[in-house]
Amino acid sequence: MERRELLKMIALATGGVLIGGELLMSGCKNPPALGGATFSDQDISFLDEVAETILPRTSTPGAKDAGVGRFMTVQVNDCYTKEDQDVFHAGIRKLNDASKEMFNKDFLDATAEERTQLLGQLDKEAKEHQKKKQEKDWQIKDAKSKDPESEGAKEQPLPNHYFTQMKQLTLFGFFTSEKGSKEVLRHVAVPGKYNGALPYKKGDRAWAE
Amino acid sequence: MAARIKQHYKGSRHMFIGRSANITQPKPEQNRVNCQYRNRCWRGCPFGAYFSTQSATLPAAMATGNLTLRPFSIVTKILYDKDTKRATGVEVLDAETNQTYEYKAKIVFLNASAFNSTWVLMNSATDIWPEGLGSSSGQLGHNVMDHHFRCGASGRVEGFDDYYIEGRRPTGVYVPRFRNIYNDRRDYVRGFGYQGGAGREGWGRNVAEMSVGAALKETLAEPGNWNIGITAFGEMLPYHENKITLNKNVKDKWGLPVLDMDVELKDNEKKMRVDMMNDAKEMLEAAGVKDVHTYDGGYEVGMGIHEMGTARMGRDPKIIGIEWQQPGLGSTQCVCYRWGLYDFCIMREPFTYVYGTYSKSR
């Protein structure tokens, strides 16, 4: 799959565009100065648990099995803009605060059911936020095309929602990982042939690419 | 779908399989294996199934024993003899050692892709023509073109739930130009073609009712709906004021001047884009596609990486860019994204012409 196609796909899944997509297209070469805050091992474990709640282990591997937490940190460091990096880092804290508010305990102390409930709510909140952001982005773009000097053209766009970032990176990291591609989806490196009318029955897995 | 489109437009529009330079039969004599349907052509095909200079023509040329490959070479200028009025070779800068070398030849072919070929011309024979070799016509650097694209339509195809695909075919569908040909007349000139593809949605699709958890994973592990999308590639007209020029104030790491680009879309292209989007929707709907939505992702010149123009050639000395009659110099000006067989066809004519001239003058 071309990188371009991949970006389009993930964009569809979470609404809007793939955050960090511009840099990903060019091969992700953030200068080290843009690195911003770094991630601790605790951050990676935390992100692993968030990812595992989004895509849990069932009879097949889950996000943690695929090391999605570490994947997220690499993408954020290498492909996110400074603004998105800040949103992401603050998001780790915000997600934990949301857990405290909802269950009176840290996210890592919450049960699997509680985590799913919390992230379900954050997902809803994030989808609404991204919709508003997209509308505002369009308004600014529209204003800029009419008059770059107008008030509307100078409006600041809304930042991305941290949970949209985390969910995008979880799907991206998991379904392109070796575990995700081979044990959840089907992967064939060298098909050797093409069949445009392969019989399919419900339950057959999708191809990894 | 192809049959429905053909019927709806009474045979004036066609959708068929895209053409690509992948071999379907092995060529052991060329050390090339037939296409393995990986669809990773752009990475450089390790099977040699997809045509490229590396997989096909360079090995063939090496096999003659007459080819010396000299990597890390920057051609800085074409050597020109003002007494005999002939191109006599090239000057090369070694990108690693910064040393300069001269290579002499009876024929020089300039195939450094559109803009760099022109860059080389602009830096050549400046003692005779300050703006470079081939600049006396006033056309060198002008008439920059690209394909403008990133707009079209896509939608959902109903049925076929008991079918999927196997293997990754390295091409999709093509719809050749139908605007402003035969009896069709629009408020712009020239036209566009479509490239597209169909497939079942993968894990990146939007499942609105799904948020997080096991059900999301299980759903995304199966293919979704069939859909199809087509994207238009429009022709850009050769405007004189769309140009590249040498910027002598900005130098690269080898001290060579860089190119400035001053290119924009004009009314003709903007009018064409409306059709590019709406025609796509109409055709998909005629073919029975549901929930068709159009898109225009915006286009900036260069995104198509199909750059063309800037050193046009021809037989009329008043309109040509390169002095075509310049003995010993030939150039191809459509070197773009991939070196496919298409480019070969473009190249054949100048080669034949120059070689013929050379043979006669010898």
Commentary on this structure:
- The complex is a heterodimer of chains A (209) and B (362).
- By secondary structure, chain A is mostly helical.
- Chain A has one domain.
- Helices cover 58% and strands 2% of the residues of chain A.
- Chain A has eight helices and one strand.
- In chain A, helix 3 (41-54) crosses helix 7, helix 4 (68-79) crosses helix 7 and helix 6 (112-146) crosses helix 7.
- The longest helix of chain A has 35 residues, at 112-146.
- Chain A is globular, with a radius of gyration of 19 Å.
- With 362 residues, chain B is α+β, with helices and mostly antiparallel strands.
- Chain B has six helices and 14 strands.
- Chain B has helices spanning 2-8, 53-63, 114-122, 214-220, 267-286, 341-361, and strands spanning 16-17, 73-81, 86-94, 100-104, 108-110, 148-157, 163-166, 173-175, 192-200, 226-234, 243-251, 257-262, 290-296, 329-331.
- A six-stranded antiparallel β-sheet of chain B has the order 1-8-9-10-6-13, with helices on one face. A three-stranded antiparallel β-sheet of chain B has the order 2-3-4. Chain B has a two-stranded parallel ribbon with strand order 5-14.
- The longest helix of chain B has 21 residues, at 341-361.
- Chain B is globular.
- Chain B starts with a helix and ends with a helix.
- In chain B, 34% of the residues are buried.
- Classes of the chains: A mainly alpha (209), B alpha+beta (362).
- The A-B interface holds A 1-2, 6, 8-15, 53-56, 58, 60, 62, 116, 119-120, 123-124, 167, 171, 175, 184-185, 188-207, 209 and B 36-39, 42, 161-169, 200, 202-207, 211-214, 216-218, 220-223.
- Strand 1 (195-199) of chain A pairs antiparallel with strand 7 (163-166) of chain B, so a sheet runs across the interface.
